[in-house]
Design goal:
Elements (H helix, E strand, L loop, with lengths): L1 H4 L5 H21 L4 H15 L2 H12 L5 H30 L1 H20 L6 H10 L19 H4 L3
Length: 162
């Protein structure tokens, strides 16, 4: 669905509303202790709502990263994201042990929503739409250079995946 209709929508709004609504749906269903069928349905709906998030992130990072740094940038992003998983699991385990499952889900969902609401106020995220708008504007025809630009040239770090 995102591929079919997403081009005409604001990346920033789609990104932020996807985060917010998917969190509200999933954490709300879990906190409300819905039956299994309700939780599965909530998961499916939240997955559809959150579907555009990763393509938008990937597109924005690709647009804003010089080609010679792609491997390093994507490697660092993946490493930082994956490095947080054990800490989150440990914190959740201690919280569940101390407060119980449902209160932990409710508090974590509340914190999640607060962080996303604060993201709506972050002026840096407004740049997500600027690059897309600039790409859609017609540009004057530029002469084709005889030599490819430096970004298009192959470099040793790109071959090594660094």
């Amino acid at each position: 669905m995102f591929g079919a209709i997403g081009r005409g929508l604001s990346r920033r709004k789609l990104f932020l509303w996807g985060w917010l609504l998917s969190a509200l749906i999933v954490y709300g269903a879990l906190s409300a202790q819905l039956p299994l069928a309700g939780i599965v349905l909530a998961g499916v709906v939240a997955g559809i709502v959150a579907g555009p998030i990763n393509p938008i992130v990937e597109t924005v990072v690709h647009e804003n990263t010089p080609p010679q740094l792609m491997g390093r940038v994507f490697g660092a992003l993946t490493a930082f994201a994956q490095a947080g998983i054990p800490f989150g699991a440990a914190i959740a385990g201690f919280a569940i042990e101390g407060a119980g499952l449902i209160p932990t889900i409710a508090v974590m969902g509340g914190l999640y929503v607060i962080v996303v609401v604060l993201m709506f106020m972050n002026p840096a995220l407004r740049g997500m739409d600027m690059k897309a708008a600039a790409a859609e504007e017609p540009t004057a025809a530029e002469p084709t250079p005889a030599e490819p630009p430096p970004q298009a040239r192959s470099c040793p770090t790109m071959k090594a995946g660094l």
